[in-house]
Amino acid sequence: MGIRSYYKYFSFFLIILSISSYFVGFIYGENSAGGGLADYPNVWLNLQTFLNNSIIDGVHLTTTYDTEIYHSSRTPLVYIFHKLFNPFVENEILFKRSVFFISLWVPILFYICLKQKFRKEENLLLLLISATIFLSPYFRTSAYWALEENFGLITLLLSFLFLNKFLTNANNISKDYYQLFLTVFFSSTCLYFDQKLAIIPLICFVRIIFSDKPLKLKFFSFFAYFIFSLPFIYLISIWGGIMPPMDAENRGIGNQLYFYHLGYALTIVAFYLLPLLLFKSENLLKLWKNFFSQRKNYYLISIFFIYLIYLLFFHDYGEERLLGKGFVHKTAILLFEEIFFQKVFIYFSFFFSWIIILIYLSDSLKNKLILSYFFLFSIFVFPLMQEYFDPIIILMAFTFFDSKFFINYKRSILLYFYLSILLVFSNIYYYNLIN
């Protein structure tokens, strides 16, 4: 039996293991992202607000400052969805189970996206990559505790599927309008399920406008996006911003800019891009050498030192709140008691993460623009949580990112184990923290 056959059998075992762990985690009430137990009461409260009122009245109740009526930073679309289409909302246990099974669409759709983008690769290999979603602490916690995040991931993947179908459709006008409408619809709902996914309709719109499709289809997309934006414009008018007023006030949205979040965002994004460097080149060492052989990259590296000067002279690390900021900040606190050593560890991690991101982005302007959006987003939000990037970065790297990937079993298995380590340590960390 050849080494390739062993990889296949082992991959099949890993797929079954990840799926099994997903069901076992639900049975035992896993809380690997830490917020499930605390956030679920708000979800159930918000759901009751919409079940006990009309949709219009429920939407207006999102403007309240009463935490006993509505408490969420997102639009109420997910609760409207449950009210209209989920028959299991009257019982808490059944409601949790329904979201658990709905969340299964994320890895399923991820596999379909991979199959569409990497047509020549083996099904088992693509199944293994899609199974890595089961290892995301944030996907799992959202699925187990009926949270809001996974609905945005579903529409993200549907947006990619229909956008690709539309762009590759060979002059079938009826299919063009059908696929274009679904692209606009699902990409627009990304925003309604999760405001940080505003990048998805923007990407889709730009791809449509700069495609070689007829002008009438581009006008149709512009008109459709305008129509689907009207409810959000209405929400902004009654909220006074892009978030419900109570959460916007609690998070300090619009009050200040959090430039120090850029460094933490670098570490979180780099964490997910690091194993994907294996897919960027058949020779990782060659990729590294090529990057450092280009003089322009040294200018990009020097940008970090400008940022470091800002942190050293204009930011007080000791005044930062402990909430959020990702795995590097938590690791620094666990490893070091003295603030000085925490700062050294964190700032060195910022620098190392900047190098990883530059290497990953070296060949694509499109990827640079997409990640720039996430970095810009990090400046405005508080607190900055790792869940804002997980598993979105992995999903987008394999779908919307403009990257040529060299996929094989060995690299995919390494990605699997890399993400497994995150899941294990997340469970240990939050179990010890909560208990």
Can you give me a brief rundown of this structure?
The chain is mainly α and 435 residues long. It is built from 22 helices and no strands. The radius of gyration is 22 Å and the shape is globular.
List the helices and strands and how they pair.
Blueprint: H1 3-27, H2 36-51, H3 55-61, H4 77-85, H5 92-102, H6 105-117, H7 123-131, H8 137-144, H9 149-168, H10 173-193, H11 199-209, H12 215-239, H13 245-251, H14 261-273, H15 277-280, H16 284-292, H17 295-314, H18 326-335, H19 339-361, H20 365-380, H21 392-398, H22 409-434
Annotation keywords:
single chain, 435 residues, mainly alpha, 22 helices, 0% strand, globular
Question: What features would you describe in this structure?
Answer:
- The chain has helices spanning 3-27, 36-51, 55-61, 77-85, 92-102, 105-117, 123-131, 137-144, 149-168, 173-193, 199-209, 215-239, 245-251, 261-273, 277-280, 284-292, 295-314, 326-335, 339-361, 365-380, 392-398, 409-434.
- It has 435 residues and is mostly helical.
- The longest helix has 26 residues, at 409-434.
- Count of individual beta strands: 0
SSE pattern: HHHHHHHHHHHHHHHHHHHHHH
Mean pLDDT: 91
Poorly predicted runs are none
Q: Name the shape in a single word.
A: globular
Secondary structure: helix percent: over 70%
Main beta sheet, described? none
Fraction of residues in β-strands = under 5%
Distance between the termini: 48 Å
Structural classification: mainly alpha
The total of helices stands at 22
Evaluate the radius of gyration: 22 Å
